[in-house]
Amino acid sequence: MKIFYKKTGVMIFVISTALLAFTGCGNRAVTMQKADTAMGTIISQTLYVEEEAAGEKVTGEIISAIDDLEQELLSWRLDSSEIYRINESAGTSEGMQISEELAGIMEACLKVSVASEGAFDVTIGDVVRLWDIDSWATAESSEGFRVPAEADIMGALEISGYEKINLTENRIILPPKMQLDMGAVGKGIALDVVGEILKEHSEVSGAIISVGGSVLTYGSKPDGGTWNVGIVNPSEPSGNIGFLQLTGEWCVSTSGDYERYVEVNGERYHHIIDPATGRPSASGVRSVTILIKDGLYSDALSTACFILGEEKGMALAEEFGAEALFISENGEISMTEGMEEYFKKL
Ligand code: AMP
Ligand code: MG
Fold it and tell me: I want to staple 302 with a disulfide (CB 3.0 to 4.6 A). Which of 46, 149, 182, 255 is the partner?
């Protein structure tokens, strides 16, 4: 029996370096590089700033904002978060009053659910818990892994369904037992938060920040070069098959079957669940990368397009004005026409 667990989010490390560079106009720019863990994933930041002290301040602000986002809004585990309290309120007639911020997030999620005909659905928390996906990141072996019984999958699917949510005027009402899971959008939402912080700091001339599989590019490099965002080779995730060459502000999110999975007896069970079956999606796709100006949509669409597969996924991305790149099971790469301008194959 082959057992393999991809271990992500278990490394705890902080690396911080600062290097001096010069901008095209001869101005000083310090390159700050920092890597931390937050939101159960690795956050790496490269910032070009006027001074090291300013860089330290901004990178620190970014990490604490991502921590706050997890603790106050998105975590299903921490009782300090709104999502936790919403889940607790499931089945009550009054539901829960939520913040403006979360109401906006939920509206955007519902928009993607409707457009993807339920392929993307944050109400499938019960199914995600049933597979125990979050434990795969830190488990030492597949000893505890069991494929859930079909009846249990069906039961969990019955509880879920975005169309059963009632969201009006910042009040959300969930039917009994429904559990929200923001795993498919959290990293993208973090990019939006980071983008807002960067805009408040004119001393930052450029930045590239990754939150797990989601990347934000901002401003420009001191040497005027492009931002190069690597696209992982699903068959060999330690390497890239190519990269996106970008200028200015963009969000890039990738959903891949190599990111979180367990492999038992040659079968891979990955973390992107098809709400139509309650099982890991089998759409013939190994990864989808979305390029768009908005973090939340980049993340939500990468998950949705993975489940929809190439043809429908491509149409969905276009509906949202996003570019998409698909890598299929046989290694074929296909993309929207607009993506061709940015993608460079290695
Ligand atoms: P991502 O890596 O962004 O594609 O998100 C995958 C994560 O989102 C999983 O670990 C689950 O927590 C959650 N998830 C899985 N399937 C779905 C789905 N169909 N819709 C919404 N969230 C999902
Ligand atoms: Mg996603």
Answer: 255
Ligand 1 centroid vs 126 CA: distance in angstroms? 12
Separation of alpha carbons 31 and 6, rounded Å: 31
Q: Whose atoms come closest to the Cα of 302: which ligand?
A: 2
Q: Output the pTM of the full model.
A: 0.93
Tens digit of each residue's pLDDT (9 = 90 or more) over 270-312: 999 999 999 999 999 999 999 999 999 999 999 999 999 999 9
280 lines ligand 1 (CB under 6 A): no
Verify whether ligand 1 is closer than 6 Å to residue 257 (CB atom): no
Our answer on whether the CB atom of 122 is closer than 6 Å to any ligand 1 atom is: yes
CB distance 184 to ligand 1 below 6 Å: yes
| Ligand 1 atom nearest 274 alpha carbon | 19
Q: Is 106 in the pocket of ligand 1 (CB under 6 A)?
A: no
C-alpha pair distances (Å), 78 with each of 34, 41, 67, 71, 196: 26, 16, 12, 6, 25
Q: Tens digits of per-residue pLDDT, 76-98?
A: 999 999 999 999 999 999 999 99
